[in-house]
Amino acid sequence: MKNLQEDSDLTNTVAVSARRFEESPYITRTNSPDMVRGVYAGRYLAIYMGEDPVEKYWTLRQKAAIFDVPEKPVEISGPDAVPFLEKVLTRKVSTMQEGRGYYAIVCTPQGGIFMDGVVFKLAENRFWYVQADGPFETWLLALSGGFEITISDPGSRVLQIQGPASIDILKAASGGVIDETMAYFRSGYFDLGGQSLYVSRTGFTNELGFEIYSDRATTDHIALWDHLMACGAPHGLEFSSTRSLTIRRIEGGILGNTTDMDITMTPYEAGLAPFINMDKGDFIGRDALIDCDRRPVLYGLTCETHTPAAGSVVLNDGQEVGYITTGVPSPTLGLGIGYVRFKTPGEWSGRKVILRLLDGGEHESHIVDLPFFDREKKIVRGIDRSIPERTS
Questions:
Q1: Which residue pairs from 224-231 have beta carbons closer than 8 angstroms and sit at least 24 positions apart in sequence?
Q2: Global pTM?
Q3: Tens-of-pLDDT digits for all 392 residues of the chain?
Q4: Cβ-contact 187, 120 below 8 angstroms
Q5: Treating both helix axes as pointing N-terminal to C-terminal, what angle do 221-232 and 166-173 enclose, rounded to 10 degrees?
Q6: Superfamily designation of domain 7-71+155-251
Q7: Taking Cα atoms as reference points, which of 217, 240, 218 lies closest to residue 229?
Q8: Among 104, 136, 266, 374, which one is least packed by beta carbons within 10 Å?
Q9: Residue ranges covered by each domain of the chain
Q10: Which residues pair with 211 in a beta bridge?
Q11: Which fold has domain 73-152?
Q12: Residue 325 β-bridge partners
């Protein structure tokens, strides 16, 4: 199942029973007759609100946006939580400190990417894995034999506050406790408006930002939403569908599970080699990765005359060499961008290619490394706090 959010997907919709998937606890604050919703990890999310996504994009880049996202935390706890996660994840977790998060991949025995997400250590022998789309709980249960662990759903819904004003907003929301000293991929429990919430300095935009995790059993979601919006109002905080987030995550080189990468692609082919700890000992998929080709097949594509669309093909010297997994217009760069998956690895970066769209139109394009800009990640790490000027 792919989770595309291109322009054509906003009108290519079907009616689905409202009981089939999990509703957002914030829906009374976010609902709109113009809302187009998608399904991700068994949850509804707003992918479009009838808004101008470019306007929301610049709110995200210049002020701050709040997103009600569907990524789902799964809890793994018990005496064998660490050895179990060492078996399942490609990252080493035995040395993780409490209050730390790692981006972590889950592979199939054949070395393909089954899942990606962020693992947090909440306490000794208690972890959350914030999963992308897919049946991850079932996967964990199937692998849990022989381990003294409990796999559970904490019922946590995730809010993201992203953008240059996010630190000032969280500082106000936490009574000054959260500030610039909270490092990237750090996390912990904080009082937000009288409620204890788990907060991490992470996000899905490659902008400065935070994620706030509720607890189904204890959180007053509407009170939390109202508190965050009140604290954010002086800083220009606005609610946005995930359309603007999708544009920014593609600019930032963040990959979507099942859309840009899947079980037919190894982490090396996806350009995710830094997140594979081959020296940590055995894990699922390790044997398949030992001797595999470690060159990437996933790159960026830029096009000045059109926006790439998923399924479009890429031609080199008249031969079909790859296809587009997803594409968006980049307001910052002022051109169309997308991810291209090549059939074979090679020295693709810097090449001029032809993009053939689904309607047969052909456009000259260029292959680039990811991300499309800010390759040193100075924005998301808080090193570059400048406010970008609007370019479109």
A1: 224/159, 224/192, 224/193, 224/195, 224/197, 225/26, 225/29, 225/159, 226/29, 227/173, 227/192, 227/193, 228/66, 228/159, 228/161, 228/169, 228/173, 228/192, 228/193, 229/29, 229/66, 231/169, 231/172, 231/173
A2: 0.95
A3: 566 667 776 767 777 766 789 899 999 999 999 999 999 999 999 999 999 999 999 999 999 999 999 999 999 999 999 999 999 999 999 999 999 999 999 999 999 999 999 999 999 999 999 999 999 999 999 999 999 999 999 999 999 999 999 999 999 999 999 999 999 999 999 999 999 999 999 999 999 999 999 999 999 999 999 999 999 999 999 999 999 999 999 999 999 999 999 999 999 999 999 999 999 999 999 999 999 999 999 999 999 999 999 999 999 999 999 999 999 999 999 999 999 999 999 999 999 999 999 999 999 999 999 999 999 999 999 999 999 999 87
A4: yes
A5: 120
A6: Probable tRNA modification gtpase trme; domain 1 (3.30.1360.120)
A7: 240
A8: 374
A9: 7-71+155-251, 73-152, 295-392
A10: 160, 200
A11: Alpha-Beta Plaits (3.30.70)
A12: none
Could you identify the residue written with the tokens 């199937």? Answer: 142
* SS3 assignment, position 100: strand
Which of 228, 216, 276 is CA-nearest to residue 65?
228
Burial of 366 (0-12, 13-18, 19+ CB in 10 A): middle
Pairing of strands 64-69, 237-239: parallel
Q: Which SS3 state, helix, strand or coil, does residue 282 take?
A: coil
Q: CA-to-CA distance for 69 and 209, rounded, in angstroms?
A: 14
Euclidean distance between CA atoms 41 and 258, whole angstroms? 11
Phi and psi of 330, rounded to 5°?
-100, 110
Question: For residues 275 and 278, what is the distance between their CA atoms, to the nearest angstrom?
Answer: 9
Angle at 304 between CA 302 and CA 308, to 5 degrees: 55
Looking at residue 121, its amino acid is K
Burial 224-263 (b: 16+ CB within 10 A, else e): bbebbbebbeebebbbbbbbbbbbbbbbbbbbbbbbbbbb
Q: Which helix (H) or strand (E) holds 173?
A: helix 166-173
Q: What are 118's two structure tokens?
A: 């962020």
* CATH annotation of 295-392: 2.40.30.110
Q: E strands of 150-250, at which residues?
A: 150-152, 158-162, 187-192, 195-200, 209-213, 237-239
